[in-house]
Design goal:
Chain lengths: 215, 313, 489, 677
């Protein structure tokens, strides 16, 4: 039961990542991320419910607050600013991207085999999907050209790790969790500042132009 | 008779014989060329005249120009103290071997070349440059020939080499010996400025070597240099004569033996002089840049000599 | 065991206080500079005090579930961090540099540089590897903010690359951390202290090798990115060359070392679980790749700050390999770390002065340095020779010991390859140095040292390098031997 | 002896400190120079003490560099020879430097030069004293580094900068090899030479061979053996002349010392091919070195190439020692080694002298180009006389010391012809031929060096205005000239000492083969003798007698001074003289296959008639074989790789992240693959 639910939740979270690969508009990307964060918070809450761990509830709530509401709002603001810049020509086209995404999930299955085999937690079955999300997020960051998309990819990467933590360990120690949240929030803010800076100095948020520094 | 008197005696004999040797060669050459020629004692007269004449020195020349003739002459005379002209073993045999002889002669050449450069005349520079080139290229041949000779004896000591051939006469015809003789003979032609390397009778040609170096010399300095050159020729001849065919050289020091040694030496010198005269009559001078070919031929001979020596051990 | 907060607070609080003070103190007054320097010195004193505690056999811990803990390794790194922070407070943007920075920029620099120091100090004193991760992640954030202190296209580009690559890398390290925790939880059960390094190490024997191997790959790639190991090093030359020199000095001098520290901590755990062969192989591989790439990149490098950055990659590669060469290798590697900290921080400060004077980062446009700025030029030459591993500087000793460790470990061929790349690096660095030091000075460049007092502290750096090269102080040797006990397996 | 050791170290250290502290005036120059002279004298005393007493000197300083095992010093016979040689050049160089570096007064370079000079001499003196890997390598690097800075003293000239780069590059290449060689020797534990010897004894053959080859490369690079010589003709001329004297006279010998220390002492000799390798390199260096020297127009470069030649000659002897030892011809081996050592000492004396002479010329005229010199014998009679003495010595002419060691080397190689293996015999014959050719060419080379520089008409106004140098410089040169004479005259006393040093190295008991019979030198078999003293005395006597006789009997008419005769032309100008280039022309043509000269003649005719020439420009260069075919391709290859590596740094953040992920995926894949096994 828990196992199926956790796989279901993880699949939803992963789907959020795959949606990023599929869609091109910034709004759609933000939507995908919001969807993913909500799904992640739900999965966390679910695991917390079954494990009887109040800390996980708290973390899920915080996550919903920060990643499900706060960050999307900021993202929306950015979208209004550079909304016209869509991911028109990613390095890899959509069909191939999705195919590679699938392959990455398969790779995650192979890589995580030892994890699944040693764990006794019922939630362990979702772990390959979490690692899969990590891989897919990395792929997004590599293959997409807009700074904003890269930020989104990075946020998804963190979601993947959070999913991994919750599925594999039912949550890391609270003090670490708090620190991680702080880092995520601060990191996002700084990245956001940089995106604005890029836009100011380069008049575009296309990362491809950042190629002055060589050798 | 003290053996220590031998050294000055050798020197004196060499000094006396050397101009005569040059004169004899010139005379024989003239005869071979059906010319009257000057008498064999002509070089003695020339030396006397030169010593009596006034010296003119270039305004560009330094003290080295005036010192060099003495060093050249000195080195040639010193060599005659070491080479077995009359007797073996020599009192000064322990002071220098064949290598010392070769390098003492090179010392003379070295200073002569410097003296050639000193007045700043293009001829002098030309002569010095060429002389040193020839001398440098003759070195390896000489060294290998020496080692071909030394190998059988295990020593470069002149006395030992000569004694060895004296005691085992068959050695004289050993292939190593014969080849080394040929090699040293060719080196002699080069080192003493004979045809086909240099023409001793030229005095103003663009091809000259030795004469170009000493063009600025006159009077007593020229006399010393001419005498030294004659001595050098004599030394090479006596090496050829007394190392390869040491018969006649005194091995006991008695007046009779020494006299006999002097006579045989004179005969050997005359014979070799005849060969030189013959050679010079029959061949023309080589172009300067073909001289290395001659010297490499002599090097090959010397190499073969060494090889033969240790193949036949 | 000693559980008191005093040493920790004296170590960690000054940079925090400094950050807060920087917000209120006037940026251009000498007094604010002095306050910063004093605070940094307090921190340095605390670090040295910790060294003495550690050498006395005490291992201070502090916080709930021993959150903070200082052993020999931590103490060494803390001293290094505090040392470079002090230099940065003395020589960083501040009075005398008005022509280059506005008060806002100077203030921003002070705030974030202090925070940067704070995060690094936390990273090396945290017992909890999770907290360590948080701190290292935070170093990226706070330092990236001041890379484009003077905004230009190049500096914005560099900072974007830095923060993106750094964050992605460090996120992977978190994956590794989670995996390690996962394995622990699976076997031992959930516990607040489960992420404590001491606890992990104590339970190492029961952990699962396949999981820990997997975790270590993530951790190595992750922290390796911060440490500048190839092929994750790509952000480093950009960030180091575009950042203000004082920040470059802190990044190159200690940030890389802190990242390496994290790897060492995990390596100790991994080696206890799966044996030393697996981690050593990875360390040697990445180290050699870094050394090779860096050495070859030095050959036709055109900018001197990038040159120094690549040289950092080269040295990190060496240290990384040293960690895999047995106890002697660890000893050499740590000695090298200290030397590199002193030398490289000095070099970046000096390159800042050169940049100010010549106004160009190009090597080709810098000439006659010895004549233009005799002190700066002389120190620059000394520092470069130190980096090249020449006596009487400390790196001769540490490189020699490292190579000796390699040969003694039976890795002759590996060491031969190392020697080849070291020679390539040597010749190239030297060629560039030659070009900068000698020759005629460009006409428009002003002659004379100018505010020469600023280089005085760096004379101390050179003296330190010589001391480290001639007679390593006994406490230092003792400390290094302690570290070998901790990490030398 | 401890006292002498500390006096030596203190002397040099004081010199260094004083140079830094006493400013940039004459006081600092003199104080630092004299302190160095004290240091050198102490060094010489220490070396002599060890040589005479026959017992070693040792001292440990475990507190210095304790973390790497501490420093240790020990001086045995071999070390003493090289310490003596170093000190022999160091004292005159320091003295000479006092006058020479007057030009730097008031410049910061003065401080640096004085400091580095003392440091250089100190570390060079400590190299033969070093006992153990760390100490040796430390001072070895110190020596290289200090000399590098000395080379860079006059770094304003672009060729100096280039020279410095070549120098340190080659040095470092060599150092890398040495590091490899030393570290391959022990498997941990203490690394004094005693321990290394024990460790080397149990090494597998392959490793021993590798160590030896690395040592040959490493030490060969320092010694300047061809093809590792490329730095030498660049760096030695670039340095101030007393430094060139030290580098050529002493430093390159440290390469020889190291090779002997590692090859014979620590490894205890090896198979015959070791010797053959060294002989081959030696022969190559000797002949090519002198050939390069011959075509050189730059006086100091000529001397530098001549150093390559002489190191080659020394290597012939060293190689023969290796070879004979492997063939169990131990007395012959000891003899060859003693001869090589003697040549090393001799070369230190005369090459030091010659470089100082060249420095005096440079000082007086501002040029090293022989085509712009000439006639200096009038302006600088002392320098000229001393340079002449050095030239005679280096050309290997009797009765000076160069000839003595050459004679010894000839005699030492001679037994090789008798070796049982025909291969060895043939090798020896060729080596002998090469040695003889080298000697002949060297004579030609130094006729040119002295004749073109000092004789005839000055070829430039600077040369015409040349003046004699400061007396401190002349004193330095005179000291070395005296050393040349002494080494020759006292050779019968010195050789037995060298034989005693050489014998244990090749495995003979201490006194070694007898090389002396009374006042003459003698080969070990007693069959050949030579006495430079008697030869000199006879020569002197003959010259004296001739001089007196000529004075007494020849014409007493006064000398008439006239124009040089010139085929009727009116005025003689320097343009008519033979130049340095012209002097070497015949040999250049003869060895054209090797030189591959490229000549570029362009003639400007008068616009009206082709019979009138306005100007002729002639440029000629010889093919730099080693630079072009050995080093250039390697450098080009490295630069190519560098370019390729730098394309990785493409500027694209996507690419960077892709590397990161690729590394991750590769490692994970590796984990999966190895995990399943």
């Amino acid at each position: 039961m828990v196992s199926q639910l956790s796989v279901g939740g993880s699949t939803l979270v992963l789907l959020g990542g795959l949606m990023m690969l599929w869609r091109r508009g910034v709004a759609a990307h933000i939507g995908a991320f919001t969807f993913q964060s909500v799904a992640l918070a739900a999965t966390m809450a679910m695991v917390g419910w079954f494990a009887g761990d109040w800390q996980l509830w708290a973390v899920a709530a915080a996550l919903l607050l920060v990643k499900g509401i706060g960050i999307p709002l900021l993202l929306k603001r950015m979208e209004r600013r550079f909304g016209s810049e869509r991911e028109l020509e990613p390095y890899v086209n959509t069909a191939t991207s999705l195919l590679i995404g699938g392959l990455l999930v398969l790779l995650a299955y192979i890589v995580t085999a030892p994890l699944v085999s040693v764990s006794r937690l019922p939630t362990r079955t979702g772990m390959p999907l979490a690692i899969g999300l990590v891989f897919v997020s990395l792929f997004i960051i590599i293959s997409r050209k807009k700074a904003l998309t890269q930020v989104l990819g990075f946020l998804m990467l963190e979601n993947g790790i959070a999913l991994l933590a919750v599925l594999g360990t039912h949550g890391i120690p609270i003090i670490v969790e708090i620190g991680v949240f702080l880092d995520v929030a601060l990191g996002f803010i700084v990245m956001q500042v940089f995106v604005y800076q890029i836009h100011e100095t380069f008049e575009s948020i296309d990362v491809e132009q950042l190629n002055r520094l060589r050798e | 008779m003290s053996p220590w008197l031998l050294a000055p005696m050798q020197g004196a004999v060499a000094l006396m014989l050397a101009p005569g040797l040059v004169g004899a060669i010139r005379w024989m050459k003239a005869r071979l060329q059906s010319r009257e020629g000057s008498p064999p004692w002509q070089p003695y007269l020339e030396l006397r005249k030169l010593f009596a004449k006034e010296v003119v020195v270039s305004s560009n020349a330094s003290w080295l120009f005036r010192a060099a003739p003495f060093i050249v002459f000195g080195s040639a005379v010193t060599v005659t103290l070491l080479v077995p002209l009359l007797a073996v073993p020599l009192p000064l045999g322990g002071a220098g071997d064949l290598l010392v002889v070769v390098y003492l002669l090179l010392l003379g050449t070295f200073f002569l070349a410097l003296a050639g450069l000193d007045p700043g005349s293009p001829f002098g520079g030309m002569g010095a440059s060429r002389e040193m080139t020839v001398a440098a290229l003759a070195e390896p041949t000489m060294a290998l020939a020496i080692f071909a000779l030394a190998w059988g004896v295990g020593s470069t000591n002149l006395g030992q080499i000569a004694s060895r051939t004296l005691s085992t006469p068959s050695e004289a015809l050993a292939p190593g010996h014969v080849l080394a003789f040929a090699a040293i003979f060719l080196v002699t032609l080069a080192e003493t400025g004979r045809l086909p390397v240099d023409n001793p009778s030229t005095h103003l040609e663009l091809t000259m070597i030795h004469e170009a170096m000493i063009l600025e010399y006159s009077g007593r300095y020229l006399a010393l240099i001419e005498w030294a050159a004659a001595l050098k020729l004599l030394v090479f001849f006596s090496l050829l004569g007394n190392l390869f065919a040491p018969w006649g050289v005194a091995s006991v020091i008695t007046p009779g033996a020494l006299l006999w040694a002097a006579v045989t030496l004179a005969l050997k010198l005359l014979a070799l002089g005849g060969v030189i005269a013959l050679v010079e009559t029959h061949i023309a001078k080589l172009r300067l840049f073909r001289v290395p070919e001659l010297l490499s031929a002599s090097f090959i001979l010397a190499l073969l000599a060494v090889t033969a020596s240790f193949l036949l051990r | 065991m000693m559980a008191t907060g005093a040493p920790f607070l004296t170590l960690l609080l000054p940079p925090l206080v400094a950050a807060l003070l920087a917000l209120v103190l006037p940026a251009r007054r000498l007094v604010s500079s002095a306050v910063h320097a004093v605070l940094a010195l307090v921190s340095l004193g605390a670090a040295l005090g910790l060294v003495y505690l550690v050498l006395d056999g005490v291992t201070p811990t502090w916080g709930p579930t021993d959150l903070f803990r200082v052993d020999a390794l931590s103490a060494l790194l803390a001293v290094c961090v505090a040392f470079v922070t002090t230099l940065s407070a003395l020589l960083g943007p501040g009075p005398g540099r008005e022509q280059h920075y506005t008060p806002v920029q100077i203030r921003r620099f002070r705030v974030f540089a202090s925070l940067f120091a704070f995060t690094m100090l936390v990273a090396v004193t945290a017992n909890n590897v999770g907290v360590m991760w948080i701190a290292i992640e935070a170093t990226t954030i706070v330092s990236a903010v001041i890379v484009p202190l003077a905004v230009s296209k190049a500096s914005v580009e560099a900072s974007w690359k830095y923060i993106l690559i750094g964050s992605v890398g460090i996120a992977l390290a978190f994956v590794g951390t989670v995996l390690g925790y996962f394995d622990f939880v699976t076997l031992v059960g959930q516990r607040e202290s489960a992420l404590n390094w001491t606890v992990l190490l104590a339970n190492a024997r029961v952990l699962h090798p396949p999981v820990i191997e997997l975790a270590f790959v993530f951790i190595l790639i992750g922290y390796g990115t911060k440490a500048g190991l190839a092929p994750m090093h790509t952000w480093l030359p950009d960030a180091h060359s575009e950042a203000p020199s004082a920040l470059s000095a802190m990044m190159s001098g200690v940030l890389l070392a802190v990242a390496l520290y994290a790897i060492m901590r995990w390596k100790a755990v991994v080696a206890s679980v799966v044996g030393p062969v697996f981690p050593n192989r990875l360390l040697v591989g990445l180290g050699l790749l870094s050394l090779a790439l860096a050495a070859l990149s030095l050959v036709i490098q055109r900018q001197y700050k990038r040159l120094l950055a690549y040289s950092s990659i080269e040295h990190t590669g060496l240290m990384c390999m040293g960690l895999a060469l047995g106890p002697l290798g660890v000893f050499a590697s740590m000695l090298h770390l200290v030397n590199h900290t002193v030398a490289k921080s000095m070099m970046f400060f000096l390159s800042g002065r050169i940049l100010d004077r010549y106004g160009t980062p190009e090597i080709a446009s810098v000439s006659g340095l010895l004549r233009v700025m005799p002190w700066t030029g002389g120190l620059f030459a000394a520092g470069m020779l130190a980096l090249l591993g020449l006596p009487p500087f400390g790196m001769f000793l540490s490189e020699f010991t490292l190579l000796r460790a390699g040969f003694a470990d039976g890795q002759s061929w590996l060491m031969a390859v190392v020697l080849v790349f070291l020679a390539v690096a040597f010749v190239s660095l030297l060629g560039h140095l030659n070009r900068m030091l000698y020759g005629a000075a460009p006409a428009e460049v002003r002659l004379g040292e100018g505010s020469g007092w600023a280089v005085l502290p760096l004379v101390g750096s050179v003296a330190l390098l010589v001391i480290l090269g001639v007679a390593v102080p006994a406490p230092m040797t003792a400390l290094l031997h302690r570290i070998v006990e901790i990490a030398g397996r | 002896m401890r006292a002498l050791f500390f006096l030596m170290v203190t002397g040099y250290a004081t010199g260094a400190a004083v140079a830094l502290g006493l400013g940039t005036g004459p006081l600092a120059r003199w104080a630092s120079g004299l302190a160095a002279v004290v240091g050198a004298a102490a060094g010489l005393g220490l070396a002599a003490g060890v040589c005479m007493a026959g017992t070693g000197f040792s001292l440990a300083a475990p507190d210095l560099l304790a973390s790497a095992g501490g420093l240790a010093f020990r001086l045995d016979g071999l070390g003493a020879v090289f310490l003596a040689l170093t000190s022999l050049v160091a004292a005159p160089s320091a003295l000479y430097g006092v006058g020479y570096s007057r030009a730097l007064d008031g410049r910061p370079a003065q401080r640096q030069a004085g400091f580095m000079l003392n440091l250089f001499m100190l570390s060079m003196s400590l190299v033969p004293l070093a006992d153990g890997t760390l100490t040796f390598l430390l001072f070895w690097e110190g020596m290289s580094l200090a000399s590098y800075f000395l080379v860079m003293t006059e770094a304003d000239r672009p060729e100096v900068s280039e020279a410095g780069q070549w120098y340190l590059g080659m040095t470092q290449l060599g150092f890398a090899c040495l590091l490899g060689a030393f570290l391959l020797l022990p498997a941990g534990g203490p690394t004094t030479f005693v321990h290394l010897r024990a460790a080397a004894a149990v090494l597998p053959t392959g490793t021993r061979d590798l160590v030896f080859v690395l040592a040959v490369i490493g030490f060969g690079a320092k010694a300047g053996l061809i093809p590792l010589h490329v730095w030498l003709p660049r760096a030695h001329p670039a340095a101030p002349s007393h430094v060139s004297a030290l580098m050529s006279g002493a430093m390159i010998k440290m390469g020889v010392y190291g090779l002997l220390r590692i090859g014979l002492d620590v490894l205890g000799g090896g198979p015959a091919w070791w010797g053959a390798l060294v002989i081959g390199l030696g022969a190559l260096s000797a002949v090519l070195g002198v050939l390069y020297a011959l075509t050189e127009d730059d006086l100091k470069r000529l001397l530098a190439y001549s150093s390559v030649e002489n190191v080659g000659v020394i290597a012939l002897g060293v190689g023969a020692a290796f070879l004979f030892q492997s063939l169990q011809m131990l007395p012959a081996a000891a003899f060859a080694l003693a001869a090589a050592l003697f040549h090393a000492v001799n070369h230190a004396a005369f090459k030091g002298l010659l470089f100082m002479g060249a420095g005096a010329v440079l000082h007086a005229t501002g040029t090293r180009n022989m085509n712009r010199l000439g006639g200096l014998i009038r302006g600088m009679p002392w320098t000229a006389a001393l340079f002449l003495l050095g030239s005679v010595a280096i050309a290997g002419l009797p009765p000076l010391n160069g000839f003595v060691s050459e004679w010894l080397l000839f005699q030492a190689l001679l037994p090789g012809i008798g070796a049982s293996s025909p291969l060895v015999a043939v090798l020896m014959v060729l080596a002998l031929g090469m040695l003889a050719l080298t000697a002949g060419l060297a004579a030609a080379c130094f006729v040119k060096a002295f004749g073109i520089t000092f004789l005839a008409i000055p070829r430039s106004p600077e040369a015409a205005a040349a003046h004699e140098t400061a007396w401190s410089m002349r004193t330095g040169m005179t000291m070395l000239a005296g050393a040349c004479l002494f080494l020759s005259a006292a050779s019968f006393a010195i050789l037995p000492r060298l034989s005693a040093v050489a014998a244990p190295l090749v495995g003979l008991p201490a006194p070694g083969p007898v090389l002396r019979a009374g006042l003459t030198l003698q080969t070990p078999d007693g069959l050949a003798q030579m006495s430079p003293g008697i030869v000199a005395a006879s020569l002197g006597l003959v010259v004296l007698v001739a001089w007196v006789a000529v004075k007494r009997f020849a014409s007493r008419r006064p000398l008439r001074v006239g124009e040089t005769w010139g085929c009727g032309r009116v005025v003689q100008t320097p343009r008519m003289e033979y130049t340095s280039t012209a002097f070497a022309e015949p040999l250049r043509r003869i060895f054209a296959e090797f030189y591959r000269p490229t000549e570029d003649v362009s003639i400007d005719f008068h616009p009206d008639s082709r019979y009138f020439v306005q100007s002729i420009s002639y440029r000629s260069a010889i093919l730099p074989w080693f630079e072009r075919y050995l080093y250039a391709p390697v450098i080009a290859r490295i630069r190519l790789w560098s370019e390729r590596v730098l394309t990785l740094q493409s500027g694209s953040v996507h690419a960077y992240l892709a590397y990161l992920v690729a590394a991750l995926v590769l490692l994970l894949g590796w984990l999966v693959v190895t995990g399943q096994r």
